[in-house]
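Researcher: Here's the sequence for the chain we discussed earlier.
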Amino acid sequence: MISPQEVIRRAGDDGVMPLVTLDEFFDGNEDEECIAPNQWGYGRPVLAVLFARLRAVEQRPDVAWVRVQLHPDTVDMGELAGEAVAVCTTAEEHVCAAWTEGFEASGVIPQLVDTYRDVPEVPPGATVWSVVWD
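Model: Thanks. This is the structure I predict for it:
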């Protein structure tokens, strides 16, 4: 799991948050409130299930990459705070939404929810969908 100190270092002086890999965000992370805290206890799966399901999405042939979009509060709080999950895929919105059914997400929207650094290349014909929680 990436440390908040490493996030702060990678954010640099301008404070632009890095997109982080699933491993960086989930591996060893036991803070159930680090992503979608308003849905934790109200139907959102535990982190281990989110990690496994997102890893399965990431391994699909029509998916280029999956990353966690960090919330700027990570810098202020010194704790990892996930804002959304980015899925770069050639699949359409309704297909991507089906992959995340049961996450208690508000849905998927096109593009990233904010400006991020460390964004992998988006292949031709692919779209970045953000899985968002309110």
